[in-house]
Inverse folding.
């Protein structure tokens, strides 16, 4: 034991502190990569009253959890009030590598009913896009300071006249219609995306959104 103690004394305080930390055993309830299995977004049916709590527990077990929200207008005490509610009432999107161990962990969480199906990344991206349409990003930009007045000189007047003639030539050139060649058309990048039922999900009520989700899963 004496050689070990002497060796420990030669280590830095940081290394000794790291070695003194208690060993943390792997929690079998945590999400893990399953070799040979592709991860997907699985749709988990939950009790509506426990939807937020289930999402929090799943995140605590290191699962990828997505609960999209929408704004809903209700009447409370005679006044219109806006609140955020789940886009799909009673359903959560969980990103995971499917395995019996993962499903046993998820099914054991109070409030979980079952896995009803899975969606592709492209379908989840459309849901994200629909949700973000109602969440504009506001960026505050400080106004630029006003430039100090410049006293014109003979040299600056000559330079300004030269710039004005240059702008006039560019304007006249831009007014001429450009001939579009085949090379121009080939240089253009055109992207298309297939229509999805989720594109119109914001125009539907809660029941309509859930029906859209079931159609996407092939359950109706």
């Amino acid at each position: 034991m004496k050689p070990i103690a002497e060796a420990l004394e030669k280590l830095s305080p940081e290394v000794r502190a790291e070695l003194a930390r208690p060993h943390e055993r792997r929690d079998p309830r945590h999400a893990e990569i399953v070799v040979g299995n592709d991860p997907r977004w699985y749709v988990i049916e939950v009790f509506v009253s426990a939807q937020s709590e289930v999402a929090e527990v799943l995140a605590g077990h290191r699962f990828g959890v997505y609960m999209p929200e929408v704004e809903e207008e209700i009447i409370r005490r005679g006044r219109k009030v806006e609140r955020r509610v789940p886009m799909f009432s009673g359903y959560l999107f969980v990103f995971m590598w499917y395995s019996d161990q993962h499903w046993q962990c998820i099914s054991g969480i109070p409030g979980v009913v079952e896995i009803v199906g899975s969606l592709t990344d492209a379908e989840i991206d459309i849901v994200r896009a629909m949700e973000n349409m109602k969440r504009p990003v506001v960026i505050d930009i400080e106004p630029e300071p006003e430039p100090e007045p410049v006293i014109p000189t003979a040299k600056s007047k000559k330079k300004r006249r030269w710039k004005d003639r240059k702008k006039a030539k560019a304007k006249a050139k831009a007014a001429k219609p450009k001939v579009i060649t085949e090379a121009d058309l080939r240089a253009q990048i055109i992207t298309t995306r297939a229509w999805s039922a989720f594109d119109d999900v914001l125009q539907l009520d809660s029941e309509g959104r859930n029906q859209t989700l079931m159609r996407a899963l092939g359950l109706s």
User: Anything to note?
Assistant: Residues 29-137+188-216 form a domain with the Alpha-Beta Plaits fold (CATH 3.30.70.940).
